[in-house]
Amino acid sequence: xxxxxxxxxxxxxxxxxxxxxxxxxxxxxxxxxxxxxxxxxxxxxxxxxxxxxxxxxxxxxxxxxxxxxxxxxxxxxxxxxxxxxxxxxxxxxxxxxxxxxxxxxxxxxxxxxxxxxxxxxxxxxxxxxxxxxxxxxxxxxxxxxxxxxxxxxxxxxxxxxxxxxxxxxxxxxxxxxxxxxxxxxxxxxxxxxxxxxxxxxxxxxxxxxxxxxxxxxxxxxxxxxxxxxxxxxxxxxxxxxxxxxxxxxx
Length: 250
Fold this sequence. Notes:
seven-stranded mixed beta sheet, 43% helix, 18% strand
């Protein structure tokens, strides 16, 4: 089985768990916080055509759809799309949702005003191909917003790894050891630690690559954890490699 098929198979089994997570976010402060952050950087247009790449259970599709934007959500896993459809329906919103590999888009050039994703790029076996595809389907002047973190960098940097280990021990002592949110945590760690981006220093890697493929403007926020209400436990655990935003304009 090739890596992309292994990744797809793993995330098929995660859909229900992740759907519960985004339902909690939709009921919490994160709903408005994420919307505010996204629209701060999105092109200024009354109705945006948005591609939610790797949409998972549909969090971005819901919150951007309720602002009147035209959202298309795609995910490589059928189960995620099924959860997204149900979440969008329950929230009284509309979105076009398709099972599709975000590294092999079935859209024409210059289709979208905004391409957006959260915690997807680290899972990809070929993020360079994904970035080229996302640029292709953006309209001139369109923007791409990528939210992610260096989830496994501590496994590739000895100094960082020692610091992370100490922080993890302190966090577990303070808050108690957190049960993993994965249905198959061992497989998740195996795939994550071998993913292409796991040893990259981000968002610097992304900024350099996005410039190399011809985006006319690139930008980043190296730490968005406070803005989108990561939990205190998450913020302390990931303080050395915080959640970030990296963006680009075509």
